[in-house]
Amino acid sequence: MDAKLAAAGSLAARMAIIAGAVDGRIAFSSSLGIEDQAILDAIAGTDRSNAEFDVFTLQTGRLFPETEETLARSEERYGLPIRAVKPDAKEVLELLSQDGIFGFRHSLENRKRCCEIRKVHPLNKSLAGAAAWITGIRREQSGNRSNMPFAEWDEGHELIKINPLADWSADELDAYIADHDVPVNPLHDQGFPSIGCQPCTRAVQPGEDPRAGRWWWENEDKKECGLHVSSITQTQPQDQKEPQPA
Ligand code: SF4
């Protein structure tokens, strides 16, 4: 699938390949950021009669109001339900009693624990049993992502992880959004290229790394929330329609 996605000329063509190749539930965890909005638009325009797309968002409880509004506008525009996946209430209560409401700023360990409870655990639950997972990762977003393939076997989640925007530049993304009149989070126009939880995201200056506004108090090489950290191999499971990844 990796080679087919790489050769496809448009996002619509890539989404059609995914819909036709994946046998089973295709999970799409949307952050409501600009990349994921382009993917949502492409899913909405894809023939889904023989494909099982499962669109959801991680409702961490700390999102910007603008992100919630983007979710509502997107559901209205595309008529696609976007499931709100919430963290375990008991885990959140224990976290708050142990670390406090802004405990994630006190240490890297605290921050990772908060991301684990509010994002990683709910994501893992939602990915369990899925055949594929679509993400909005682009290689130019950060050095950690510069080698992302279009499709790879994710050993940790036991599914194919698919990055249909892997080779897109920011200009290509902006052009798609404009051409398709895709609803986007208004924070993007206020200097937020990457939007996560409200207390952990700030605007960036022109020329700054797009992810510089995420957990800005931490070292650059620690800036992942754990959603895209897992064991990856090039082995394809036998129950996919594609015989082998390229
Ligand atoms: S981004 Fe911040 S508030 Fe959101 S889950 Fe991670 S540490 Fe917690």
UniProtKB/TrEMBL annotation:
This is Adenosine 5'-phosphosulfate reductase. InterPro entries: APS_reductase, PAPS/APS_Rdtase, PAPS_reduct_dom, Rossmann-like_a/b/a_fold. It catalyses: [thioredoxin]-disulfide + sulfite + AMP + 2 H(+) = adenosine 5'-phosphosulfate + [thioredoxin]-dithiol. Its EC number is 1.8.4.10. Binds 1 [4Fe-4S] cluster per subunit. The lineage of its organism: Bacteria, Pseudomonadati, Pseudomonadota, Alphaproteobacteria, Hyphomicrobiales. [4Fe-4S] cluster binds at C114, C115, C197, C200. Belongs to the PAPS reductase family. CysH subfamily. Its cofactor is [4Fe-4S] cluster. GO terms for molecular function: phosphoadenylyl-sulfate reductase (thioredoxin) activity. Residues 26-203 form the Phosphoadenosine phosphosulphate reductase domain. Keywords: Cytoplasm, Iron, Iron-sulfur, Metal-binding, Oxidoreductase. It is found in: Cytoplasm. It comes from the Bacteria. NCBIfam families: APS_reductase, PRK02090.1. Catalyzes the formation of sulfite from adenosine 5'-phosphosulfate (APS) using thioredoxin as an electron donor. It holds the Pfam family PAPS_reduct.
